[in-house]
């Protein structure tokens, strides 16, 4: 499946670096140097993910253009997930970003591996039977954790990122278990569908008076009921 990503950053070097790296991973990537042109692109095309810098010129003479873009996406492009990039990662920034609907954030300098892992997490959650519900659960858990962390006066910002990384791994483990259960359900549904179809084929070959007709009919009803 083609995955479209929009990279928004007023720093040309950073914008081009992220764009080139993601293109090498096989994603279809567009780029924008400001919030206004990014919104214009979002009105024209559908993107699965937006990766945006937080600290760049915004829409209202501010320097938090990433937050302005988040507000727009939350209102007008709710199907697009956002990874916020910031050079000044604090607990407050993380909480504000999550409340505005960001899926995750990453602080500079970051590794290509970390960014790619965040993208893969979004795509993995989108592959669930009910992707919107799965992503909302993730955001809700993440937001609650951030709120708890905010209330711990003894926690320093430099301790935040390892802690969140550990929590994210635990959340991923939970959803991986759910994904395995979904695969079982899908396999069961496919098996029941095959049984129902096979029953219909058998019924066409049987005479009404055949003693096994009632049994075949019962099997068909049970399969369809469970479907």
Low-confidence parts: none
Structural class: alpha/beta
What is the tally of helical segments? 8
CATH class of the largest domain: Alpha Beta
Reported by name, the CATH topology of the largest domain is Rossmann fold
What is the N-to-C order of secondary-structure elements (H for helix, E for strand)?
EHEHEHEHEHHHH
What is the CATH superfamily label of the largest domain? Response regulator
Instruction: State the end-to-end distance.
Output: 27 Å
CATH architecture of the largest domain: 3-Layer(aba) Sandwich
Helix amount: 55-70%
Rough outline: elongated
* Largest sheet strand order: 2-1-3-4-5
What summary fits the major beta sheet? 5 strands, parallel
Mean pLDDT: 83
Strand content: 5-15%
Taking Cα atoms only, what radius of gyration do you get, to the nearest Å? 24 Å
Q: Would you count the extended β strands for me?
A: 5
How many domains? The number is 2
List keywords for this structure.
227 residues, alpha/beta, Rossmann fold, 2 domains, 5-stranded parallel β-sheet, 8 helices, 5 strands, 63% helix, 11% strand
Outline:
This protein is α/β, with parallel strands linked by helices and about 230 residues long. Helix content is about 65%, strand content about 10%. It is built from 8 helices and 5 strands; from the N terminus they run βαβαβαβαβαααα.
